[in-house]
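Re: the request from the purification team.
They wanted to know what the chain is likely to look like in 3D before they choose a buffer screen. I agreed to run a prediction and write the result into the notebook, where they can find it.
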Amino acid sequence: MTKKLAQTIASNQFDVDKVYVERAWKFLDNTERHMLLVYHLQVYSVAEISRLLMELGGEWSKLSDNKSRHKEEISIDVNGHNERLLLQLQKKGFITSYQEKNDRKKRCFEVWVKQQ
């Protein structure tokens, strides 16, 4: 695995075995890891997603605790890629719902993490 191949896997949606997604994860920075999850989250189990969100860090790590159902406000850019990752997390059953929340200070997502 080279960094260039890892970046290709992260930036494109196509079928790839989990072993290659895992190897690519090790070569990528957080921005590229985010895209890897957007395109290849389906290869991971719900239990593995917690670890990946913790490793991704930042606001995403708030979602990693799925021991009890809870609401988190994550201050991430309201853009297509972030919303796509949230949609993938919802389809996978890791979160129950999310919605954009606007207040005077910031735009963020309100996310309900599902108890596992």
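For the purification team: Helices lie at 3-10, 18-27, 30-40, 46-56, 80-92.
Please add any questions underneath this entry.
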